[in-house]
Design goal:
With 328 residues, this protein is an alpha/beta fold. Helix content is 39%, strand content 16%. Strands 3-2-1-4-5-6-11 form a seven-stranded parallel β-sheet, with helices on both faces. Strand 1 (7-10), helix 1 (15-27) and strand 2 (32-36) form a beta-alpha-beta unit. The radius of gyration is 19 Å and the shape is globular. The model has no long low-confidence stretch (mean pLDDT 95). Bound molecules: nicotinamide-adenine-dinucleotide. The site of nicotinamide-adenine-dinucleotide (NAD) has 26 residues, from helix 1 and strand 5. Nicotinamide-adenine-dinucleotide binds next to helix 1 and strand 5.
């Protein structure tokens, strides 16, 4: 199938952006620009036949370069990480507002842009809706009255609204997905920005390889989350982008809720090992409970993410295991 549109993926050197470029290539898109701030050698996935640009998208001029001639813009660029990063780097997280703001301004000035995608987060949801680990899942309306995650969540909520107003005031067609914890191969698993699924895999692998059969868990382990496998995320992102009906921010996440203790059980089972657990109650742990209510995405797209956690974690574990072995 021929795909004549020119697409830019911002944040293409990162986890989700890299997988999105891979999928677009697989579908036969030939005119793709990939942009990231990181040096090219550090991109998780690199592709020939793509125009790869290293640009700091907090700068307006860089955004102009990034979007020139593009009809489709995916903004997946942000200075972010797991709880350990976002709780300790609120100002840095908020500075990502410059990326989306300048990309929107550049997109508006480019007369050819057909669609603009912004990657928001479940961190926009109000804190008082996430106190109970056995919570009912979050619906899109639960973002207001606003009391999102400090720093990162406020930036996401503000940028969502910026997309909305660029649509309403300037006619730029924008789409926003609220991602709930995405995991899979080719993402961060160490260094401080990793998220829970990758961190658990790394810790279990390190315990297995070192023979020290112990794991430290952040929080009391009862906090609940849902985790979406990367393939579901990439498919859902494009379905939302191409949809005529998804005009407001929408949940993109799994509704398979587990506690962090259950997540560790799964990784131990994959690794074939049982570890002694200790709980660090002082470590950043985020809200007590969070899950994705998928009623709206099922209604509008007749679809929702569906990869079972056990299946996705097995693939993630294998990739991280090979990476760690290759480095040792
Ligand atoms: P990631 O950190 O792997 O990728 C983000 C990329 O953006 C990085 O490669 C980084 O170098 C790049 N970047 C940062 N600042 C930049 C700048 N000034 N100019 C250009 N590039 C810059 O993260 P990810 O997991 O791929 O997340 C992609 C998007 O999805 C982000 O907006 C993130 O906030 C959002 N999101 C992710 C998750 C998740 O679970 N991974 C959950 C909710 C929302």
């Amino acid at each position: 199938m021929s795909h004549p549109e020119k697409i830019v993926v911002c944040g293409a050197g990162g986890f989700i952006g890299g997988h999105l470029v891979a999928d677009l290539l697989k579908q036969g898109y030939t005119d793709i620009r990939a942009v990231d701030k990181k040096p090219f050698e550090e991109w998780y996935q690199k592709f020939d036949g793509v125009e790869n640009l290293v640009l700091d998208l907090q700068e307006k001029e860089a955004c102009d370069k990034a979007v020139t001639g593009c009809e489709i813009i995916y903004n997946l660029a942000a200075d972010m990480g797991g709880m350990g990063f976002i709780e300790l780097n609120r100002a840095l997280c908020m500075l990502s507002v410059l990326i989306n703001t300048h990309l929107l301004m550049a997109a508006k000035e480019q007369k050819v842009v057909k669609r603009f995608f912004y990657a928001s987060s479940a961190c926009v949801y109000a804190a008082d809706k996430q106190i109970n680990p056995d919570l009912t899942a979050l619906t899109e309306a639960d973002a207001y009255p606003a009391m999102p995650e400090d720093g990162y969540g406020w930036e996401k909520l503000f940028s969502e609204r910026m997309c909305r107003h660029f649509s309403e005031d300037f006619g730029l067609l924008t789409r926003v997905a609220r991602y709930h914890n995405v995991y899979g191969p080719n993402g961060t698993y160490d260094g401080g920005r990793e998220k829970a699924p990758a961190a658990m895999c790394r810790k279990v692998i390190e315990a297995k390889l070192s023979g020290k059969h112990h794991i430290e868990i952040w929080g009391d382990g009862h906090q609940t989350r849902s985790f979406m496998y990367i393939d579901d995320c990439v498919l859902g992102t494009q379905s939302i982008m191409n949809s005529k009906t998804v005009t407001m921010p929408i949940n993109l996440g799994s509704s398979e809720m587990v506690s962090i203790n259950q997540l560790v059980d799964i990784v131990e089972e994959i690794a074939g090992i049982k570890l002694e657990r200790s709980y660090n109650l002082k470590a950043p742990k985020g809200v007590n409970g969070r899950n994705s209510d998928n009623t709206l995405i099922k209604k509008l797209l007749d679809w929702e993410p569906s990869t079972p956690l056990r299946v996705g974690m097995e693939k993630t574990y294998r990739w991280i295991y090979d990476e760690i072995k290759a480095k040792s």
